[in-house]
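Quick start: read one record
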Amino acid sequence: MLRVFDFCFSLLGLVCGFPVLLLIYLISLFDTGSPMFIQERVGRYKKLFRLVKFRTMRLGTASVASHLACAADITALGRFLRKTKLDELPQLWNVLKGEMSLVGPRPNLFNQTELIAERDALHVYDARPGITGLAQVQGIDMSNPKLLAQTDAQMIREITVASYFRFIFQTVLGKGSGDRVRE
């Protein structure tokens, strides 16, 4: 049932949000010269997929988890996109394709071995990764792998249609701190 919501809302978001996506793309051309950020992430059943986002950091920035990145590498537009979570909009394409869900554990990098081990032990990879979820609205990021994996597993066990929509609305209304970076 949640997959039906994912498909319908991601398609609707891509169609209705196309003018916003195009505007951000064009503005980003002047900001970084390369508006899209594509990165391999670990998905459902630990299968790698290519996550799509708007670029928020300068070109040439190391490909690391956000909590390991440096705030000085974020562009002015990137700060705005992260704060408003508009950098996540292209992931609706990943949701439409079935690689992600709107709600689920945030997909990690393939080299985050500690987080992979924690999530693997709790069967977190049995679920599709998501754009948002319980950990995101509670401000838990990948800097605490054990807590993140436990929170993800709890969300997967307890997910309902009501909590699915609650996490989406909380994210849209700005709850959670998004991807944290070092100051």
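The helical segments are 2-16, 18-31, 76-84, 91-97, 113-121, 134-137, 145-158, 161-172.
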